[in-house]
Specification:
Strand content: 25-35%
Number of strands: 14
Distance between the termini: 59 Å
Radius of gyration: 20 Å
Shape: globular
Largest sheet: 10 strands, mixed
Length: about 325
């Protein structure tokens, strides 16, 4: 791919993004760009705001027009590895899989290999993209299981990014929520970085991104509930933050939940050893053919064991 093949991308800064650094805004948008890639382009003078070059720390104003001239991606540095995958669908343009808990999506500090990207490079032909996460247009946390879609071609990648940007995706998660959440509730808040812990997010902020989660209790359990969460938006840690900040955190969440007081619930959470969160449903129109597609999977065995223990309790 040559530089002439890449069209400039223009975005308009929203009110929610005002005051944020340009590198954070661009990497947070569902454009498929990592923060390191955005930083490299800024350093190369490929990013302007209202026609003027920016620095990584440049803070943006609402209404500003930011133009990015992407550079051709460098060759992928991730190596193919034979890691088993549960593939639900594959065609010339995309692949849909059921990600197991414990699998990191793309290489990062502390996880140089053994990731989903390494597995994808072994199992199928991927067109070049971001050097460490080709085809990845959305992700699940390491310890969250469930349905993911991956683009195999540039055309599919652009189409999927557009669907995610328009929130034209059906996403339903199953979670075990500690405590007693309402039967039905919609959480519509801002979600932003925690003021003192940059690895966490919070709804207790006046500056962040709009996040909407529709929660419905599917089954009451001992000291907890099985809930379905339908997403209108897809912010980082959205479900985990919404449930925690409203008093019923995802069971076993090592970041947002405290050990439960109830002995049985505490034991079940410890045995699970991760957040009880599963991406159960992913529905969308095929980004190239327009065909309606919908995939649904059952939670993995450890999630089901936790459910059974809380039902018995």
């Amino acid at each position: 791919m040559s530089e002439s093949d890449l069209e400039p991308v223009e975005i308009v800064v929203t009110r929610e993004e005002a005051g944020e650094r340009v590198d954070r805004v661009l990497s947070a948008r569902p454009l498929g760009w990592s923060r390191s890639t955005v930083a490299r382009w800024i350093d190369e003078g490929r990013v302007t705001a209202d026609g003027a070059p920016v620095a990584r720390r440049t803070k943006l104003r609402a209404g500003q027009r930011v133009v990015v001239r992407p550079a051709p991606p460098p060759p992928s540095e991730a190596e193919p590895q034979e890691i088993p995958l549960t593939i639900l669908h594959e065609d010339a343009h995309l692949l849909v899989l059921d990600k197991p808990p414990g699998l990191v999506v793309h290489p990062a500090p502390g996880h140089a290999d053994g990731t989903l990207v390494n597995a994808l490079l072994f199992h199928t032909r991927m067109e070049e993209g971001d050097r460490l996460r080709p085809g990845i247009v959305h992700r699940l946390d390491k310890d969250t299981s469930g349905v993911m879609v991956v683009a195999k071609t540039a055309e599919a990648r652009e189409g999927l990014i557009a669907l995610f940007q328009a929130h034209d995706i059906e996403r339903r998660y199953l979670a075990i929520a500690a405590g007693s959440p309402p039967d039905r509730v919609t959480y519509e808040t801002l979600v932003g970085r925690h003021r003192t812990d940059r690895k966490r997010f919070t709804t207790r902020t006046t500056r962040g991104k709009r996040a909407v989660t529709h929660l419905e209790v599917k089954e009451r359990l001992h000291g907890a509930a099985l809930v379905e969460c339908r997403l209108d938006t897809g912010r980082t840690h959205q479900i985990r933050v919404h449930l925690s900040d409203h008093g019923h955190p995802v069971l076993g969440d090592p970041v947002y939940a405290r050990p439960p007081k109830d002995p049985l619930v505490r034991r079940v959470a410890a045995e699970l050893g991760r957040q009880a969160l599963h991406a159960a449903v992913l529905g969308f129109r095929h980004p190239v053919t327009g065909e309606p597609m919908r995939f649904e999977t059952e939670p993995p065995e450890d999630f089901r064991r936790a459910l059974a223990a809380l039902r018995a309790g």
